[in-house]
Amino acid sequence: MTTHSDVHATQDTAIAPGQPINHEKFPWKHIVGYVLSLVLTFAALGLVLSSALPLTAVIVSIVILAVLQLLVQLFLFMHLTERHGSATHILTLSFAFFVAITVVAGSAWIMTFRSSVA
Amino acid sequence: MAYPIDAHHAPVDPSVPLEYSTEDGSLKILGFWIFLAADIVLFSCLFATYIVLHNNTYGGPTAQQLFDVPGFVAETLLLLTSSFTCGLAIFEMHRNRLQPMIGWWIVTILLGMGFVAMEISEFAKYVGEGANITRSAFLSAFFILVGTHGTHVTIGIFWMIALLIQFIRYGITAVTARKAFVASLYWHFLDAVWIFIFTVVYLSGKVS
Lengths: 118, 208
What we know:
The structure holds 2 protein chains of 2 kinds. Chain A is mainly alpha-helical. Chain A has helices at residues 28-50, 55-77, 88-117. Chain B is built from 6 helices and no strands.
């Protein structure tokens, strides 16, 4: 249990020396996140350069790899789920993703519709 | 009590990280997440524009002809590594180790500068080849999307330099910890946006 009490948390108070906030000794989470990001980046690059798959399959695969890498950033680097109080930011972010997906997928669908039915 | 405590600056819970330790800090971090949500919507509009217009080259260069694989892979690695080192700076901040925190912070700034330098030379090369922003709808969408991201990174570099001065002057306090954490959120967010530029613009450009 982390008991680093005595943090006089006024606006300009430094925490007392020798009382680290975080007792983790080695940044495992960050190293795992970095290695995963590199693997996902080079996997996407390899898929494109090898051109072993048909066009649509390559595009779908690299977008999935990008989404996985987004999750790495959010969970391993941005401490998304480390809650200290409210989780309002997760709700806000979910709404932003909903709008973003609607705008991107909706635009792509509507603007390519005519060429696909012609 | 040696310190004046009002409602906004009262400790919420001493067991939480320093950046969340005041109500003021927690609210500002939430506010920054809301800003990032708005920025996601901004970038989604630019991505939608690019996806719709990327084949409208008007007789000009195509994505396939323009993009240089080693160049954009190097840019990706610079930004990816800077996101990692930024995470390490926050990790050291949570351990209350100022010197390593400042060290990783400087590495992050330098990698960010390397990224911006590469992007400027990439843009200059394209314009030199006649592929400027007015050449075609594809190039307008490309420069606006990638340029908006590059502008964000440039602003981030100036912001991080300003914070570096504050870390050196004031050390790790509830205020500087919150500022560092918010800047790190911004930096990781920019890396996440770049992953999608790498995928949707550069890699997809090389496929089709």
